[in-house]
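Reproducibility note. Readers wishing to regenerate the assembly model reported in the main text can use the exact inputs given here. Chain order matters: entities are listed in the order in which they were concatenated for prediction.
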Amino acid sequence: MNRVRSDATAAPPQTFGAVFAGLKPHMAALDRFLREQVQAFEPEIREMADYCIDTSGKRIRPALVFLSGWKADGQPTAELVKAAAVVELVHLATLVHDDIMDDADLRRNRDTAARKFGSTAAVLLGDALFSHALHLAAQFPTNEVCHMVSESTRKVCAGEIVQTMRRGSMHISREDYWRIIDLKTAELFRVSCFLGARLSGVTPAYVDDVARFGRHLGIAYQIYDDLADFYGDEKRIGKTLGTDFASGKVTLPLQVLLEKLPESERAALIEEICGRQPTQMAKRMQQMAQYEVFGTVAESVQQEIETAEAALANWPEQPPSALLGQLCEVLRAQMAVLNGPL
Amino acid sequence: MNRVRSDATAAPPQTFGAVFAGLKPHMAALDRFLREQVQAFEPEIREMADYCIDTSGKRIRPALVFLSGWKADGQPTAELVKAAAVVELVHLATLVHDDIMDDADLRRNRDTAARKFGSTAAVLLGDALFSHALHLAAQFPTNEVCHMVSESTRKVCAGEIVQTMRRGSMHISREDYWRIIDLKTAELFRVSCFLGARLSGVTPAYVDDVARFGRHLGIAYQIYDDLADFYGDEKRIGKTLGTDFASGKVTLPLQVLLEKLPESERAALIEEICGRQPTQMAKRMQQMAQYEVFGTVAESVQQEIETAEAALANWPEQPPSALLGQLCEVLRAQMAVLNGPL
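Running the prediction on these inputs yields the following structure tokens for the assembly.
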């Protein structure tokens, strides 16, 4: 994969799937490993754990571990597979808890754990997944993985808490938004990259830069994801558009629209965000087009992508650099898809 | 404390408070340490974390760490304080999540986190407390603490899940009940004792026996606690009696009553447990008296206490042995209080 993908003359990949195609043996090893982990759970909850260890997601975080730890031979080492499992289990646990809070029925076109097992069991099941992730983290020779992952998990939770507290509130600044996505998304992207690089034994300065790449890619990705809630294709992203808006979550597109709207319209939109009036998705989409919200938000994505790329600029010869750089290309391509014919 | 308490001629202590009196410097150190930890949380959630790090509980688990790690000089070492903080934070996190699931408004005479911050924030806050506990666990020189605590946490969650799944169901055997309390309560008692002994550098065989003591004390304590839900003093235990019964939780007292009741009455009681009929607490208490349920359950407590004591029988010269043994005396005394004039 390394040779083909880092060929500068080839067209840049358009989808995460294209970049991840070279990770098939890695993801297969991860699947096997995760399935084996089910046996570590107490017999009474194995079936539930197995249900949550869903293998249908994009698995961006494990991919970051593998790509950041990429060596010349491109083989998935047992350590990388375990680290990938740790970050994926943390992510799956947060999804289980998110779906309780969002009262969501479906995720990836099937019942959420909360719907299938009840929200009470889902709270505990998420806890069990978290615990098992940390249990795996404790199997590394040093404390570092446990240390990083537990702190990271706390940050992800803090980000989600801040987001929850801000729901339906207009007292949210751009700084608040950045802080929330930095904690809830970028942090685990950062740690995924850190762990991959760290476990591959590269120099500490490169580990730091790869981690910084991960953080900014994470911010860019979350802004993209928030844009997709307005501009996405429901079938492709597998969820109803406008759910953030409807739940009172002020993401960057809405924030930019608020900044650009005239006073009277802004007041009306605030009423919708606060839940005092029903949301008018079609009207707001029309206004977003009118005020060119997409372009402004896209600029932010572009800036974060560039910051991510700059983090790796000094390390062109390191195998992960080119591979990780492709993720930036994919994100650019995905942004172009969002901006396509509606 | 050591000298006074292990004096065999003194009257055995009657309350946990009496045994814990000698732990005042330890608990003060723990309080300071826990309060300092609040600063480690993200600024936005510090106030919430501070609220959850409640210092009013009995702190049995930290006490087990301190007593199990007791040395001749009886000083609280930094390592013991940290280990005590880890198990207390795990316990507090489970309480935060328990209160969401039980829809409880009050705990220790003040609002639960779920009521104060909303259940959504409480789910995440519990997660953040868990994560921070593991983050502290990762600060020990070796992976062992992280390893033990994360596995233990998963077991506690598994126990709670099994208990939740069994609610309102009559398909629960005595084995099921034992399994549930072994996971949800005894496991963290066991690990608290393990960590205390382990960190004090005693021989592995003694560590194992202290851990075994903790497990059986935990089982005895949970049966006692389940009895208190029927026989306790509402003011003293700080909660309404019969809440387990009302929520369809079949604990040992109810199980014994079911075994002893004639067929027709058993069917009526099952209707109440399953929630198809309102619970008749007074009537069931009367039947418990008639069929001497207390005595049967008390026998189980007694057996577990004896198993716990037996675990330490070979180690009379070790300082923790006498101190831990006092906890058994307290539990016996507390059982006698429950059995007192109603």
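We highlight two features of this model. Confidence is low (pLDDT under 50) at residues 1-8 of chain A. The longest helix of chain A spans residues 204-231.
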